[in-house]
Design goal:
It contains 15 helices and five strands. The protein is mainly α. It folds into two domains: 286 residues, Fic-like fold, CATH 1.10.3290; 73 residues, Arc Repressor Mutant, subunit A, CATH 1.10.10. The longest helix is centred in the last third of the chain and has 38 residues.
Length: 389
């Protein structure tokens, strides 16, 4: 649909330069989104895919296993888009507090992402509204540590920022002036809670993501928090009982198109092209998540059967307890495994040796002491697309 740009320009100052900063119009777009023909079909397909994901996850013996893994996978992928070099293995090692060779600042940022999401989901489950206060609280979690301490954790920015370029004057995009941020975010919060415009949750999440990225309300962490906002909206809108749909891999794989479409919304008001891209991502990502859940369910069942067929009843019971612990934490040390299973250290060591003999786990350090063991096939499934940029 033909529209003008989706905002206005205001003069702002940054780094001693006067620049034209973009202030987005409040949502929803005017004229209204065109949902005719193929776009309506795409919306329906995306909705069906999300519903199927929610159904499949609730049928798993322990949905929290998938949630634990998916949240961490998402944290890695979303942080990689911002330039961090940490992998899922780095994060899991960091959580063990045994991190030789791990880039500390990078993996701290990824861990902060997990903490921010956990905080947001806990607040929502306790009945707290999806609002600017919650986003600021999550931002404070996200910015914990060395790199984020001077980025006004938990506060909207009070200075002009810019995206791309070496200075404001040659920036690719300049978000709203600082004095406009509060009003823009208040309008976005109003949109998040609107219930009279008839917009489906998926469309509301798609529009809100662009608006948040355009406002860029914080000095740092906007990209990561903007992607978290999608997951929060789908849960808050009761499309998903657990936050298991993340678009970071899709955005990472199509990042050039992603940024081009954000720009086109701003310059031409082309919300429809963005929505097509977003809904295709939701549909395909949800279908992939269903496949991953089924793949992991089959893997767990097959490995349990292998253990049961391999040894004596006593050894089998210990090996099964060790395997259950590895499903919860697929990278672990013997010390953590013994603690988590209640097995003695020697018994835990024998159980892991039995799993290694079956090819289920693999020792990662090559050391005689402080060894780290990985549930290799499980990690291989989770690591798809997870190589740093």
């Amino acid at each position: 649909m033909q529209r003008d740009r989706s905002g206005r320009y205001a003069i702002s100052s940054a780094a001693g330069e006067r620049v034209r900063a973009f202030v987005p119009h409040p949502l929803p777009p005017k004229p209204a989104i065109d949902l005719s023909g193929p776009r309506q079909q795409l919306l329906e397909q995306a909705g069906v895919a999300v519903g199927r994901l929610d159904s499949v996850v609730t049928l798993l013996p322990d949905p929290q296993l998938l949630l634990y893994a998916y949240v961490r996978r998402e944290a890695v992928l979303s942080s990689q888009i911002e330039g961090t070099q940490s992998s899922l293995n780095d994060l899991l090692m960091f959580e063990l507090e045994e991190t030789p060779g791990v880039p500390f600042d990078d993996v701290q940022e990824v861990s902060n992402y997990v903490a921010a999401l956990d905080h947001g989901m806990t607040r929502l489950r306790d009945g707290f509204p999806l609002c600017n206060r919650l986003l600021r609280e999550m931002h404070a979690k996200l910015m914990t540590g060395n790199r984020g301490g001077d980025k006004l954790p938990g506060e909207f920015r009070r200075s002009q920022n810019w995206i791309g370029g070496t200075r404001p004057g040659n920036a690719h995009f300049v978000p709203p002036p600082p004095q406009e941020v509060e009003a823009c975010m208040t309008a976005l919060e109003t949109f998040l809670h609107a219930d009279s415009d008839g917009l489906p949750i998926l469309l509301r999440a798609a529009l809100a993501h662009v608006q948040f990225e355009t406002i860029h309300p914080f000095l740092d962490g906007n990209g990561r928090l903007g992607r978290l906002l999608i997951a929060l909206q789908l849960h808050h809108g009761r499309l998903l009982s657990e936050p298991l749909l993340y678009l970071s891999l899709y955005f990472k794989q199509h990042r050039t198109v992603y940024y081009e479409l954000l720009d086109r919304v701003r310059t031409h008001g082309d919300w429809e092209a963005w929505l097509d891209f977003f809904l295709e991502g939701v549909r395909d990502t949800a279908a992939s998540a269903v496949q991953t859940a089924q793949q992991l369910g089959a893997l767990f069942a097959a490995d349990i059967q292998r253990v049961q067929e391999a040894g004596s009843s006593t050894a089998t019971a210990s090996a099964l307890r060790a395997l259950a612990a590895l499903r919860q934490r697929p990278l672990t040390s013997l010390r953590h495994l013994a603690t988590n299973t209640g097995l003695s250290f020697p018994t835990a060591s024998k159980a892991v040796h039995a799993l290694a003999t079956l090819g289920i786990v693999q020792e990662r350090t090559g050391q005689r002491r402080n060894r780290i063991f990985a549930y290799t096939a499980y990690l291989d499934v989770l690591n798809e697309g997870g190589a740093p940029l």
